[in-house]
Design brief:
Blueprint: H1 43-57, H2 66-75, H3 84-95, E1 98-102, H4 108-116, E2 119-123, H5 140-147, H6 154-172, H7 176-188, E3 191-194, E4 197-200, H8 203-206, H9 209-215, E5 221-224, H10 227-232, E6 243-247, H11 251-269
Parallel strand pairs: 1-2, 3-6, 5-6
Antiparallel strand pairs: 3-4
Helix pairs in contact: 4-6, 6-11, 7-11
This protein binds 7,8-dihydrobiopterin (HBI) and fe (iii) ion (FE).
């Protein structure tokens, strides 16, 4: 389902060679990097971070999900590349999650094992100033700004831990392809129907200027979240998404985890839906 994506460095899953840039040689058996080997931040790193955040902040109003924005504000990370210790203190108090540094994309088993113990791996390196608009792999801007704010929201925090456990189970049963689709559509590119309208909570959307503008525009197709449909839906990662799925609340994601074991088996036998493909039973989100 995944190929390299030309923009803003959101990566598909299993098919991509792990980490073109990260410091994998010094990673520990669980995939994390020991504090002692972390490269210090330069003023240029902080400047890159500030401009990336400032650019996104101009388009968040009316587009970013309220729980995600509240989380971002609580993390107070606009002025400099955040430290994981500082953010972890806020997360522990809110939902018991913590952040661990990693060299980049991790093998699925390591990734799931960390999520299952409420440890979210955050890539340590940050893109170079000339890469503001485009990088191939997720960097700290995608991992931290995209994924961390919603870890302050209890239902979502519970869901992502359960996803970790489900991942370890699915890996034993060779069901990673449909499970990666669930991560892609509902963690990286998810939309939520809020009282004041449609909003984005997906990390891949909110860490990308182009995707944030596109996802909330009239261009893409938006379907009501349907777990079985998501598990059959393939995707491209080399362009903005042609289709998104809309949840009504984060508890819906956690509830879907319970259905997953049966649906994963069925999805392995079902014909995959091509990227942006239509199916008779599709429930278009009316909004
Ligand atoms: C699980 C998901 O489908 C995807 O395969 C992965 N995502 C990530 C990963 N590793 C990191 N660090 N971050 C991710 O988002 N490894 C695997
Ligand atoms: Fe991500």
């Amino acid at each position: 389902d995944g190929t390299t994506r030309p923009e803003d460095g959101i990566i598909g899953t299993a098919t991509l060679p792990l980490g073109l840039r990260g410091d994998y040689d010094r990673a520990q058996p669980d995939g994390t990097l020991p504090e002692a080997v972390l490269a210090p931040r330069s003023e240029a790193d902080h400047a890159t971070w500030r401009s990336l955040v400032a650019r996104q902040r101009t388009i968040f109003p009316g587009r970013a999900a309220s729980a995600w924005l509240e989380g971002l504000d609580r993390l107070r990370c606009d002025e400099a590349v955040p430290t994981l210790e500082g953010a972890s203190a806020i997360l522990r108090a809110a939902t018991g999650w913590q952040l661990v540094p990693c060299p980049g994309l991790l093998p699925d088993a390591q990734f799931f094992a960390l999520l299952a113990t409420r440890r979210f791996p955050v890539t340590h390196w940050i893109r170079r100033p000339e890469e503001l608009d485009y990088i191939v792999e997720p960097d700290i801007f995608h991992d931290f700004l995209g994924h961390v704010p919603l870890l302050t929201q209890p239902d979502y925090a519970e869901f992502l831990e359960a996803y970790g456990h489900l991942g370890l189970r699915a890996e034993k049963r060779g069901q990673l392809a449909p499970l990666a689709r669930f991560y892609w559509f509902m963690v990286e590119f998810g939309l939520i129907a809020e009282r004041d309208g449609l909003r984005a909570y997906g990390a891949g959307i909110l860490s990308s200027r182009t995707e944030t503008l596109h996802a909330l525009s009239d261009a893409p197709r938006r379907l009501r979240f349907d777990m079985a449909r998501v598990l059959r839906s393939t995707y491209r990662i080399d362009d903005v998404q042609p289709v998104y799925f809309v949840i009504k609340d984060y508890a819906e994601l956690f509830a879907a985890i319970d259905q997953a074991p049966a649906l994963l088996e069925a999805a392995m036998r079902a014909a995959p839906v091509p990227p942006g493909g239509h199916e008779a039973g599709d429930e278009v989100w009316q909004g």
